[in-house]
Amino acid sequence: MTGSLDLTFAALADPTRREILSMLLEDDMAVTDVAEPFKISLAAISKHLVILARAGLISQERRGRVKWCKLEPGALRSASVWMQGFGQFEPVDLDAFESYLAADLPGRTPLASKNEIDNE
Q1: Do residues 83 and 89 make contact, with C-beta atoms less than 8 angstroms apart?
Q2: Residue 91: pLDDT band by 50, 70, 90 thresholds?
Q3: What does the radius of gyration of the chain's CA atoms come to, in whole angstroms?
Q4: DSSP secondary structure string for all residues of 13-68
Q5: In terms of Cα–Cα distance, which of 80, 72, 59 is closest to 25?
Q6: Are 5 and 78 in contact (CB under 8 A)?
Q7: Cβ–Cβ contacts within 10 Å for residue 107, how many?
Q8: Which residue, 13, 30, 44, 104, could crosslink 40 as a Cys pair with Cβ 3.0–4.6 Å?
Q9: pTM for the model
Q10: Is the CB of residue 10 less than 8 Å from the CB of residue 55?
Q11: How far apart are CA 52 and CA 60, in angstroms?
């Protein structure tokens, strides 16, 4: 478990990777779309994506010629359980995490809640 925690926290330590995760909260994205808002090369973004995938925070799949990225929110579960062991941290509430990212990253809006989707 320690190895996976190390990978998770190392992946989350970089602001570019955290921004990528917040982008993927909205929907799956093609690698080129992930790279678009950043002022770094596609190769650099690809390296960030590899780190996120190794940590299990995202998955990638090829659809035709395009490589797509998908958020894997369950990957944060082990980090949440570990932090709860200190008694100072609440369980990770992914809705609250999404709201935090939306507030922290201007221009991002939270996704519709499950209740809002069910009521449509």
Answers
A1: yes
A2: low
A3: 15
A4: TSHHHHHHHHHHHH--EEHHHHHTTSSS-HHHHHHHHHHHHHTTSEEEEEETTEEE
A5: 72
A6: yes
A7: 6
A8: 44
A9: 0.69
A10: yes
A11: 10
Residue with token string 């990253």: 105
Q: How far apart are CA 8 and CA 14, in angstroms?
A: 11
Element (H, E) at 104: helix 94-104
Q: What is the pLDDT of residues 4-59, one digit of tens each?
A: 889 999 999 999 999 999 999 989 999 999 999 999 999 999 999 999 999 999 99
Cβ–Cβ under 8 Å, residues 13 and 48: no
Nearest to residue 9, comparing CAs of 78, 105, 102, 111? 78
Place of tokens 């958020």: 71
Q: How far apart are CA 13 and CA 58, in angstroms?
A: 15
Query: Side by side, which strands form the sheet with 58-63?
Result: 29-30, 66-71, 58-63
pLDDT for 98: 74
